[in-house]
Specification:
The protein is an alpha+beta fold. Helices cover about 65% and strands about 10% of the residues. It folds into 5 domains: about 160 residues; about 150 residues, no CATH class; about 110 residues, PAS domain (Beta-Lactamase, 2-Layer Sandwich); about 120 residues; about 150 residues, Heat Shock Protein 90 (2-Layer Sandwich). It has 19 helices and 14 strands. It is elongated and about 180 Å long.
Length: about 775
């Protein structure tokens, strides 16, 4: 066999080297594929667990919010529809799904806590359902005010019975007065003593006391219906309602015992029916303990039950909030379990890759000998390649020298072994003076600080580093921001021999970012200013709308005032004609009756009848006089006078017209009140009419308060009584002529007063509320020189 030529030997050796490389490549690919297959299987298992945990965490948050919405709709005070169902089944399904997630540490603890929270929420939901069932009848009764209307009806019926009783008593006294007029002197004396006896006065006092108790009882019942505290509710029952009901029952018994028309005029047991409507059937009064034990039903039980249910609702809401917060607190543990799954996936990948690298390293060791031997054989044959490699190295250095980015090379000790001109220019060095120095001289901090030294970590562990914003130090100790990348240099044994640092100056980019940030800040300020301007415009629009609404209301009031004035003018013209037509026949009747009275004999009954005719004729004259006063144009005798003095005179004289017993009269003028200008006598008539009406509205007693105040435009007199008030439908007609609620009134007093005040350029305003009294405000303009 002929020996092979050197060229053929080289070719054969190359082919052997190629075959060994192919074999090693196939084995390497097989090892890598097996490692990646195992890694992928583990990754799929961990990803499935992570997805299940993520889905469970999101579903837990959604179901927690759904449970909160369901409880909120169930506990609505207006018993609105339940729009959101309680997720009982969904929570249980979530717990079962998490229970199936095996291989995850701490999942059992989270699942147990979830089961406890589901049980607590189910219990709270059942409590809320029971509360809604208990609250429904209480809400319906309170909403429709059945119990309150029943108590009001009983009080109104009792008032009606008392009015009938009073009417019959007065009718009986009127009959006795008629008998007294017709009786002889002896019998008349007995009848007069009977009329003036204590019995006649006693039933009046008892009736006034009953009416007073009814007013107080009505007020306390309204307070009871609107009470919002249990302790005050009990106090109202035992310390106010019970004594008032006892006094009412005592005065009713006294009325039945002293009634002049018989005891059957009043109901037998009105207080018992009121007590039953208030405290329910089967109520018990413990007089020794001064308390009332409520029975079944009644307004008191309704209000008490409603307050108790409100407390239950607040407790259920607190418990629900607490349990929902605990349920929400399970979301972070589930999220942390997901994070742990991701970390476990990373660890498994590192472990699999480390095993693969170890296998490849062992395979490399086995083939290293063959490669070294074959390499030794072809060393001589590759000498001619050294020159080409030297040329290539020179070309690489030229490329690095010409590069626009800065490039530094450091050895394993951290000494700079290479620097290109771009790096020298950026760092302020020249002529390769940085070569041989430690790389820490280009870092702003100390070389021992890990966070400020990305190069050290690369030299120590071989990790690559890339920073978008790193700071280097120039030779003049100034700072320059750079985008930096540090790559380790490894030998054939993967030992770290140094590192390559590439960086680029990003000062211009930083300046552009700052400029852009300032632009965004200015834009935000402009948006804020624009929003403030929008708010100012909206506020001005609202203010203008309110002004327009106020002007509209004033215009409507002026139109109503004009219509009322036109109506009064028409009625005044009619009243003047009627008064003139009535005066002539009235004068004829009066004259004929006086002539007839002079011609008749001294029969007492005849004289009484003619006297009654004369009194009625005088009443007709009074009415026609009021009609003429209403129709006559107000010619005012203006003068300055002291307003408080006029009001004090009226209060001194009013007791001759209306009884003022049990009435507290108060006059409170302002200390700096100036003189009032107007017709003193006409204004006396106005204030007298209003004060007399206020006193007549308080037959059982009360308080009449008169205050005087002023400003730069007008003087105001307020007359406030504590009577029963005026209903809304009557307040609209109270200044109309001939409208009155009195049996003996003409209905012209307030109409004439309205005309007098209008003639002064003023106005009368009525404010009243049933059960809380009435307030008349007379406003008179001040003279221009006083303002």
């Amino acid at each position: 066999m002929k020996p092979l030529k050197p060229g053929r030997k080289i070719i054969l050796l190359v082919w052997v080297l190629v075959m060994i490389g192919l074999f090693v490549g196939v084995v390497t690919n097989g090892l890598i594929g097996w490692t990646l297959h195992d890694l992928n299987q583990e990754r799929l298992r961990l990803v499935a667990q992570e997805r299940r945990l993520t889905r469970g965490a999101e579903q837990l948050r959604r179901l927690s919010r759904q449970a909160q919405s369901a409880l909120g709709s169930l506990l609505q005070l207006d018993l609105g529809p339940i729009t959101v169902p309680f997720p009982d089944r969904e929570l249980e399904q979530l717990r079962q799904e998490l229970e199936k997630t095996s291989g995850v540490p701490d999942i059992g603890k989270v699942n147990n806590e979830l089961g406890q929270q589901i049980h607590s929420l189910r219990r709270i939901w059942q409590q809320a359902v029971a509360w809604r069932a208990d609250y429904r009848p209480v809400y319906l009764d309170s909403h429709e005010r059945k119990s309150l209307r029943q108590v009001r009806h009983l009080l109104q019926k009792l008032r009606a019975d008392l009015e009938i009783f009073e009417g019959r008593q007065r009718l009986a006294e009127a009959r006795k007065i008629r008998r007294w007029r017709q009786a002889d002197p002896a019998t008349a004396d007995l009848i007069s003593r009977e009329l003036l006896g204590s019995g006649s006065q006693t039933w009046r006092r008892s009736l006034d006391a009953v009416n007073t108790e009814l007013v107080d009882l009505s007020r306390m019942i309204e307070i009871l219906a609107g009470e919002d505290r249990l302790d005050q509710l009990v106090d109202l029952k035992d310390n106010q309602l019970k004594p008032s009901l006892e006094r009412l029952d005592r005065e009713l018994r006294r009325l039945r015992s002293i009634g002049l028309t018989g005891t059957g005029e009043l109901p037998a047991d009105p207080v018992d029916r009121i007590n039953e409507a208030l405290f329910g059937r089967g109520y018990t009064i413990y007089r020794e303990y001064q308390t009332i034990l409520p029975g079944k039903g009644g307004l008191y039980q309704l209000v008490s039950r409603q307050l108790d249910l409100m407390q239950q609702r607040e407790q259920i809401q607190r418990e629900a909030t607490r349990e929902l917060q605990r349920l929400e607190s399970l979301y972070p543990p589930l999220a942390s379990l997901t994070q742990k799954r991701n970390q476990e996936l990373a660890r498994q990948a590192e472990h699999s890759l480390a095993n693969g690298a170890l296998n490849l390293f062992m395979l490399s060791l086995l083939t290293l000998g063959g490669f070294l031997g074959l390499g030794f054989l072809i060393v001589r044959m590759t000498k001619d390649q050294i020159a080409a490699m030297t040329s290539l190295r020179r070309q690489n250095e030229l490329i690095l020298t010409s590069a626009g980015e800065g490039v530094l090379g450091v050895n394993s000790e951290g000494r700079i072994v290479f620097i290109n001109p771009s790096a020298e220019r950026m760092l302020g060095w020249n002529n390769q003076r940085l070569t041989g120095r430690h790389y820490s001289e280009i870092l702003p901090g100390k070389s021992g600080r890990q966070a400020a030294d990305p190069i050290r970590n690369t030299l120590k562990k071989g990790d690559s580093y890339r920073g978008d914003e790193t700071v280097f130090r120039r030779r003049d100790d100034s700072r320059v921001p750079v985008a930096c990348a540090v790559t380790p240099m490894l030998d054939e044994n993967r030992q770290i021999e140094g590192a390559v640092i590439t960086f680029m100056d990003i000062s211009d980019r930083k300046a552009a970012e700052q400029t852009l940030r300032r632009y965004y800040d200015r834009l935000a300020e402009q948006e804020k200013a624009l929003a403030e301007l929008n708010r100012d415009l909206e506020r001005k629009v609202v203010e203008r709308t309110l002004e327009l609404e106020e002007k509209s209301r004033q215009l409507i009031a002026a139109k109503e005032e004009l219509a009322h004035a036109e109506k009064l003018a028409a009625i005044g013209s009619l009243a003047a004609g009627v008064a003139h037509e009535i005066n002539n026949p009235t004068a004829i009747i009066r004259g004929n009756v006086e002539i007839l009275r002079a011609r008749l004999s001294g029969d007492r009954e005849t004289l009484d009848e003619t006297g009654e005719i004369l009194r009625q004729v005088e009443r007709i004259s009074l009415i026609t006089g009021n009609l003429l006063a209403f129709a006559r144009k107000q010619n005012l005798a203006l003068s300055n006078f002291d307003l408080p003095s006029l009001l004090a005179e009226i209060l001194d004289q009013v007791s001759h017209q209306v009884p003022t017993e049990n009435i507290d009269l108060q006059l409170s003028p302002a200390p700096d009140l100036p003189p009032c200008r107007g017709d003193r006598e006409r204004l006396r008539q106005v204030f007298t009419n209003i004060i007399v009406n206020g006193l007549q509205a308080m037959p059982g007693g009360g308080r009449l308060t008169i205050t005087c105040e002023h400003d730069h435009r007008e003087t105001r007199v307020r007359i406030l009584d504590t009577g029963p008030g005026i209903p809304a439908e009557i307040r609209k007609q109270i200044f109309h002529p001939f409208f009155t609620t009195k049996t003996d009134g003409t209905g012209l007093g307030l109409s004439v007063s309205y005309g007098i005040v209008q003639a002064h350029g003023g106005r009368i305003v009525l404010q009243s509320e049933p059960g809380r009294g009435s307030c008349f405000t007379v406003s008179l303009p001040r003279p221009i020189r006083d303002s």
